[in-house]
Predict the structure.
Amino acid sequence: MKQYLEIGKIVNVHGLRGDVKVVPWCDDPAFLCEFETLYLGETHRSVTVTGARIQKGNVLLHLDGIETVEDAEKLRSQVLYMDRDEVELDEGVYYIQDLIGLEVMDADTGESYGTLTDVLQTGANDVYEIKDAVGKALYIPAIPDVVLKTDLQDGRMQIRPLEGLLDAN
């Protein structure tokens, strides 16, 4: 499992004090505002967040040591990361990055449906995209009635499809 997870991308400079505008890559922009430390770019250089606020679905951050427009401009297009150890997830909540690649199996028969390749966020509930051995996509709702067990250690997810669910796929 990756230690550092992508959480957003710096897309622009904001104001004259070196603030940066970040497009959040998380469910809720407020989540990004909770961090005191984020990690910048591929090297995961730690940066201290001294100010964070939401503006029109994006996040405006003030980072320690970035005091001018010129300083902030150098950070444009950089990806921001979070350290997974700095967040306590609720029971049954997972990072999308950890779900991608899981083998999806029938809880009753042990039959493999394929590999989880994407998580689609539809609003009511997430939908898991599973590709079988020949690349055909299956879609299942990420609800407790269907997803019975997610085992990140073994790299497997056990499901029990609802009646007729896979026929529609």
Notes: The two ends are 30 Å apart (CA to CA). The mean pLDDT is 91. The CA atoms of residues 138 and 169 lie 6 Å apart.
